[in-house]
# Entry
Amino acid sequence: MTVEKLKEKLMLDAVVVPDSNREITGCYIGDLLSWVMGAAKTGDIWITIMSNINIVAVATLCDTACILLAEGVLVDEEVKQAAQERKINILSSKKSAYTLSTEIAELLV
Amino acid sequence: MTETVKFHFTVDGENFTMAGQASVAVKKNLRQLGISPEIIRRVSIAMYEGEINMVIHAGGGEADVFVYENMIEIVLTDNGPGIANVELAMQEGFSTAPDQIRSLGFGAGMGLPNMKKHTDFMGIDTKLGKGTKITMRVNF
# Structure
């Protein structure tokens, strides 16, 4: 499933989506960045409430398909700009990480 | 063994939000060299953790990456306070990072363990009050 498709299906908000055709192959939830780096896999959609600029670097290095900000978390303009430059997709939703992951699980089966 | 390519970066210790620039640049350079994505992932994650450590604990430092025929070597050198107890620092969950760093999502005590996990070799040469030199190798 592509990032664009998932965004439509779950009615997620687009923060920046420079690579909308990126394929999502799994899902990981975490806010401790080192933990995420040790565990998130290439192609995962990464659900987090962490919103500082370092999330862009972590997503770049882990090669996750998309960052999904849960609980209505907002990011600064600086983060959006960095994500755009590095072709990192960022979506957001008011739902909790738990709710989002159950919905994603149904779609990824 | 022939050394093919070499990259050097200065890691700015003042600007935490810019940390990771060297790792991201290395990732891009390695991709251009045609190195496999899995190797690149391991190298760049290990290097990013090292870079973050230098920013948090040592006020920055120097990062060198050497690409050999069958191996990539990352050497991180700083003039920070050194690591008092390497064995303890290597334990998952042990951290001396300040609260402000934790609020940014780091300082979980996973940095050094992650670096070891993602590399085939990691050596720590540290002297209290002098600094730390970390050498990591990823074979391919």
Remarks:
- The first helix of chain A runs from residue 3 to 9.
- Strands of chain A lie at 13-16, 26-29, 44-48, 66-69, 90-92.
- Chain A has a mean pLDDT of 95.
- Residues 53 and 109 of chain A are 32 Å apart (CA to CA).
